[in-house]
Amino acid sequence: MDRRFRGEGRTVILMGEQRGELGGGEYLKTVHGLVRGVPPRVDLARERAVQQLFPALVAERLIESAHDVSDGGLAVTLAECCFDTDGIGVIVDLPAATGEAWAGAAAGAAADEQTLFGESAPIIVVSTAAAQADAVIARAVAAGLPARAIGRTGGTQIRIGIDGREALVLTVAEAETAWGTAIEARMTSRRAGAA
Question: What's the half-sphere exposure (Cβ side, CA atoms, 13 Å) at 126?
Fold first, then answer.
């Protein structure tokens, strides 16, 4: 199954629960220089549900794309779904992370950081034709996997809200450039630090 959004006007569905787990994740390492914390807990029942549900959704052509949330969290996953799509963007509104607040963040920023960059598992972002969205959500819920429509594909921006409040806006081109040059930028900063 491809991770890329297939066209405009598709419904984007979030399967799983964002608990905002940042421990051992890319965000803490990249932004804060920290490699520590409790990694995301594993929910074997939900992992099993994902493994049983997805082959059926794919076989029945109910979903057009799917991407797991891992390295970098939901914001990175949503951006990656927009890459190599001729600039198809996405507009979503995420529920705030349900986990305990991260004490290392600046006041007021912790909840947004956890929602955007937490790596709880299993979480999957899928897209489907609008007419199929209710069926996909119903199948996920019946399998024991929380699911909800969070937005739609379209435009040339990645617009992410959290509980109705705008949290992140950038163009697909800006995100793809930042993503594509991340290794080069990291290597340059390490060389500068070693000098």
Answer: 31
